[in-house]
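Hi everyone,

Forwarding the result from last night's run.
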Amino acid sequence: MNDKFFTLDKQKQDRMINAALKIFALRGYKLANTNDISAAASISKGLLFHYFGNKKKLYLYLYRHSVAFVKEQMRAQMDLSETDFFLLMMNAQQIKTNIMNSYPYIFSFLLKAYYEQDAAVVDDIASYNVQTLDDNTALILQKADRSKFRDDVTLEQALKLVVWCAEGFMRTKLHQEHFDVEEMNREFLQCLQLLKRSFYKDE
């Protein structure tokens, strides 16, 4: 990684980051082509390598950057006074939407990376995956009010189901070249409302 990348203005940095996120999210590590990334970023392949060295270094930089950025935004924007599980999840969803307005493919990339099996990068990303999942799970389990759930539903079960739904929802978007971030947000919030009616006691 060439530190000169960080001297570029943010618009140029984000153009390269978003181009690489999109290509890796749509194709995975092995099939992603640096020619396509440089074309999407409107720079030469030589300049891309000048900043990032090679495809693997670019991929791992994107992964570290994406994980750190998401965690930073979650900490900064999360309402830690909230105890309602579904309001916490809706708050998290809104933060994700805010993030995607800047980096549309960041969560598609992270999900793709979570299941990445290419030997060139799999060991490098494994520890990040575990730590990120543990951090997010611990926060929800600590803050959420368990008393609102039906007697036959635990908070742990609800959290697993919401995470599975979120992953499945994102997978349906993985192969789309274009999507509406706000429409995605509305769709997933509707899913959360449906799960809330299923999991919570009658008010």
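The chain has a mean pLDDT of 88.

Cheers,
N.
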